[in-house]
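Incident log, structure service

09:12 report received: a user says their structure output differs between two submissions of the same chain.
09:20 pulled the input from the user's history:
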Amino acid sequence: MASGQADLLILDEINNALHLKLVDLEQVLDLLRNKPPRLHLVLTGRDAHPQVIELADALRQMTREEQDRLLVMEQDRLVGLITKSSLLRFVQVKRILEPEE
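09:34 re-ran on a clean worker, output below:
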C-alpha cells in the first residue's frame, strides 16, 4: 500500500473482525486517515464501527449526494466507476461462496 502501486484495496470482512476485536480499531482508523490519495479502500462486513463509517469516503459521499455511483479519477482521467450495487453484489457473492459457520 505504501508503495503507491495499488489504487484499490479491498479489506474483506474487516468490519466483522473489528466487531469481534480480532483487529485493532486504531490501526484501521490510522490506515483510513493516512492512505495514499489515489488509493480507494473498500471495507466489507457487518457491524461497521461508527468511527470507521465516519471515515468511509465513498459511502459518505454517495449518501450525502444521494448518488448510486462514484467516478474514479486518476490525474484528471476517468479510470473507473464504483457503484453501490456492485459493492452489494460483491458482498452477496462472497456470502454464497463463504457462508457463515
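09:41 both user submissions now match this output. Likely a transient worker issue. Closing.
09:42 reviewer note: The mean pLDDT is 77. The chain has one domain: 8-97.
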